[in-house]
Amino acid sequence: MRVEDGPDFYPGARGDVLDGRYELCHQLGHGVYSTTWLAKRRGSTQQASGSTTQYVALKLLSRDATNDVRGRIMLEVDAMKRLRERGPHAGLPVLYEDFAFDQSAHICLALNFLGSDVGSFRRSVTNKALAPHVARTIMRQVVDAVAHLHAQGMVHTDIKPDNILFQVDLTDEEIAAWDATIEDPTADSPYPCPYTPDCSPEEAAKIKVVLVDLGQCQWAEGKPTVSQFSAFSLRAPEIILKSDFSPAIDIWAIGCIVFEMLVGRWLFHPVDGEDDWSVEDDHLAKMMELTGETFSAEILARSPVRDEYFDTQGNLLRVDELYFVKIQDAMSNYKLLDQDEIALAADLVSRCCRLDPAARPSAAELALHPWFSKTDQ
């Protein structure tokens, strides 16, 4: 993301000093609403509050995102402050401070410095799948982080591999040496993953990850401030049906991600049938096919858009036939996992991906699933 790509973004450059204290080094990454930079706290002995290093990740919100924060539409800053007030969690980002800059046009969050993302890590593998012991280590920590979020009354709503970052343990000298190798400071350059996809179970046990980006976070109680949540392929059915907002949408996403990590493919890949059906029609159909369930009259009655997709009998309007496939069989088709692994993983995914959000386990309950405690050889 360069300034010419998005005029709503702050045009950061190496050497820029924000709030008189943070010197920009290079861009780590970008999203729809922000860019994130490696920055160094000015003054060799003064560190960001709570930080053990002079280096931080500065998340620079766009003008639109800044306005949404101030209008209480985007709840990221409030959510991060609540987490800070109630104690840190190893699987969630740390907010050191927030401030406005550039004549208050942008809000900046000073966060702990982290490495690259799990999505890129998975996509670097030839078959796009992670070894079960690697996926298990990562997702165990994600579920624990989600359980903590939910306990604080928050719903992440945007859990995806690209929002799971690796922790790194580097000295200031090591960070400075790495930063010096970056030729283009305005191109995304996250710290390389310190692990390899084919690492042993012993090495995988050392992996530490953090679930980041609370930009779409919502309070569990109360009406959501926005109408669209989640990555396209990870949407829970109630997101499409615009009903039943709850922490259960995070659980659905977790189930989809476990499948994706183990077989290297999305669990749901809906397509547009042009004049015959919509992407949402196909997504709802695939949800029924893979779960083996149908939407109850009670669920559909709570949807304000029910009649856009279903007839009076609860059948899809534009999809005539459904072809049911068990999740266990879908995982077996890729021939990447042994049957014991498939049985446990498919059970976990199936429990997460229930059409009725009330039937899904809580994150705390999900953490006790035997797939997470399976012994890896």
UniProtKB/TrEMBL annotation:
<feature type="binding site">
    <location>
        <position position="59"/>
    </location>
    <ligand>
        <name>ATP</name>
    </ligand>
</feature>
<keyword id="KW-0418">Kinase</keyword>
<dbReference type="InterPro" id="IPR017441">
    <property type="entry name" value="Protein_kinase_ATP_BS"/>
</dbReference>
<dbReference type="InterPro" id="IPR011009">
    <property type="entry name" value="Kinase-like_dom_sf"/>
</dbReference>
<dbReference type="GO" id="GO:0050684">
    <property type="term" value="P:regulation of mRNA processing"/>
</dbReference>
<dbReference type="InterPro" id="IPR008271">
    <property type="entry name" value="Ser/Thr_kinase_AS"/>
</dbReference>
<dbReference type="GO" id="GO:0000245">
    <property type="term" value="P:spliceosomal complex assembly"/>
</dbReference>
<keyword id="KW-0547">Nucleotide-binding</keyword>
<dbReference type="GO" id="GO:0004674">
    <property type="term" value="F:protein serine/threonine kinase activity"/>
</dbReference>
<feature type="domain" description="Protein kinase">
    <location>
        <begin position="22"/>
        <end position="372"/>
    </location>
</feature>
<comment type="similarity">
    <text>Belongs to the protein kinase superfamily.</text>
</comment>
<keyword id="KW-0723">Serine/threonine-protein kinase</keyword>
<dbReference type="Pfam" id="PF00069">
    <property type="entry name" value="Pkinase"/>
</dbReference>
<keyword id="KW-0808">Transferase</keyword>
<dbReference type="InterPro" id="IPR051334">
    <property type="entry name" value="SRPK"/>
</dbReference>
<dbReference type="GO" id="GO:0005524">
    <property type="term" value="F:ATP binding"/>
</dbReference>
<dbReference type="InterPro" id="IPR000719">
    <property type="entry name" value="Prot_kinase_dom"/>
</dbReference>
<protein>
    <recommendedName>
        <fullName>non-specific serine/threonine protein kinase</fullName>
        <ecNumber>2.7.11.1</ecNumber>
    </recommendedName>
</protein>
<keyword id="KW-0067">ATP-binding</keyword>
